[in-house]
Amino acid sequence: MAYPTDRKYTKQHEWIQASGSTGAVGITDHAQEELGDIVFVELPKVGAELAAGKSFGTVESVKAVSDLYSPASGTVTAVNENLVTSPESVNKDAHGSWMMKITLKNPKELDALLSAADYEKYVTEEGGH
Amino acid sequence: MSSVESTPASALAPVRKTALNAVHRQMGAKMVDFNGWDMPVEYPASIGGGIINEHMAVRTGVGIFDVSHMGDIRLAGLQALAAVQHISMNDASRLAVGQAQYSALLYPQGTFVDDVIVHRLGEDEYLLVINAGTREKDFNWVRDNTRQFDCAVENLSDDFTQIAIQGPKGVNVLQKLTDADLSAVKFYWVTHGTVCGLKNILIARTGYTAEDGFEIYVPSDENTSARVWNEVLSAGKEFGIVPCGLGARNTLRLEGKLPLYGHEISDTINVWEAGLDRFCKMEKPEFIGRAALEKAKAGGLKRTLVGLEMVERGIARDGYKVLDDGGREIGYVTSGSPAPFLKKNIALAYVPPELGAVGTAVKVEIRGQGVAAQVVPTPFYKRPKKT
Question: Could you give the CA distance from residue B54 to residue B247 in angstroms, rounded to a whole number?
Fold first, then answer.
């Protein structure tokens, strides 16, 4: 899997794609693969204030429950309601399935995140755990 | 993202492997530590796997499982029946040669050492099939508690690769590979036959999927094991056979309300609480646990195992609290999961008997929130009767 270079990644397997002062957030293809069949996504409310590294929701596969961690601080401006009714979309296209959009409080936070190449190296070396 | 798997890894014991371990890895299976065993939890989607696909294959077609981690204890000798009767709660005297029954080994207090399938293989020969996580405990228990009988107790756990071929098409697949007439083998009966050219193989029409199916016991050397596994996969190709891991095994058994040791049954839960009354034959004059069970019955139940279905959005998981309608804690979930065939979120839970009636509204505490659920009839899934 080639990881798109238009975004940054976390070691907790989220991605964030910045566009101006807005960031779209999702989980990586590696994450969906590790989880297996995704059956439940719980997302924050629009307007919620998030701190970088803090939980913003939950994703569940048949077997596992996972917390989602925000790659950056900001205010939630939109959540992807399609994922609530079709959580399996994340398995089919993890990098195309944004979960929430936030107004970035401090865009510089993204500089500390992993590039696509570094993330790929990380999951290969660490086995992603 | 950080994951919590339903099956806890046991960190201390060295990891054990079945003879098919390399085969699973070659097929790209996702492996997990299950009670000290390195086992496939699911296979890749590229070969038809994924827990939901694997589950559906067994409900509608056929799936193959490596269940070699299960243990096997053979009891043979003039007093084999008396020994089995003493250590198990079902009535083994009702078994004809070639017949099997679901049963359990109990502690004197009426709680579970393990649940077992008792197969009567010969006039004075029985095979107990036991759980992976309790192999040593069970064997020691059986050996220590049958010393007074003229009966040899052997641990055959490492002698067999146990392969389960489960689902309505399982019979068609296995029939291609054996000279035994499988149509003559009823559910919970066994036979012996040549399988994949191997003579005198034990074939049991049993399983842990709430579906029709077979379990075969072949020699546990790696070459033979891999050959049989691959021959079953080839024979099953025309029926859409899918390799299945422990993930689907768990969701399949949960839909059928089949208990899992450490969850629905354990050394602190008794037979009446677990609702396994019909497998416990109190008309037997004696067996370990009987006296305590008689007392427990007279004393009344403090908790009972019920089926729950989520009413609101949310998935109950093992260990979650069950609350009454007013938010008071009344019990806990023993097993909870999405049910792939039923397409509902289901759970088994212990609650006080007065809150266990079908239709009772309860809540399951999920991440601090009470989420509505209700008590429903079990088993959640019952396979269609053959016409």
Answer: 9
- The domain boundary residue, chosen from B111, B133, B154: B154
**Complex confidence, ipTM:** 0.91
Total Cβ atoms within 10 A of residue A68: 26
pTM of the model: 0.95
Tell me which chain B residues have a C-beta less than 8 angstroms from the C-beta of A37.
50-52
pLDDT per residue as tens digits for the range B24-66: 999 999 999 999 999 999 999 999 999 999 999 999 999 999 9
For B141-188, the DSSP string reads HHHHTSTTSS-EEEE-TTTEEEEEEESTTHHHHHHTTBSS-GGG--TT
Could you tell me if residue A129 is inside a domain? no
How distant, in Å, are the alpha carbons of B202, B220, B274, B322 from that of B199? 9, 14, 40, 52
**B341 and B235 inside one domain:** no
Contact B233, B243 (CB under 8 A): yes
Nearest CA in chain B to A36: B50
Residue A95 Cα distances to A6, A52, A60, B193, angstroms: 11, 20, 17, 52
Structural domain span for residue A72 = 8-121
CATH code, domain carrying B332:
2.40.30.110
Give yes or no: residues B195 and B250 share one domain: yes
DSSP tag of B311: S
The C-alpha atoms of residue B68 and residue B83 are separated, in whole angstroms, by 25
pLDDT digits (tens, 9 = 90+) for A34-71: 999 999 999 999 999 999 999 999 999 999 999 999 99
In a domain, B281, yes or no: no
A69 vs chain B: nearest CA distance in angstroms?
6
- Residues of chain B with Cβ-Cβ distance to A32 below 8 Å are none
The CA distance from A65 to the nearest CA of chain B, in Å, is: 5
Distance from CA of B366 to the nearest CA of A (A): 11
As a whole number, mean pLDDT of residues B187-214 equals 98
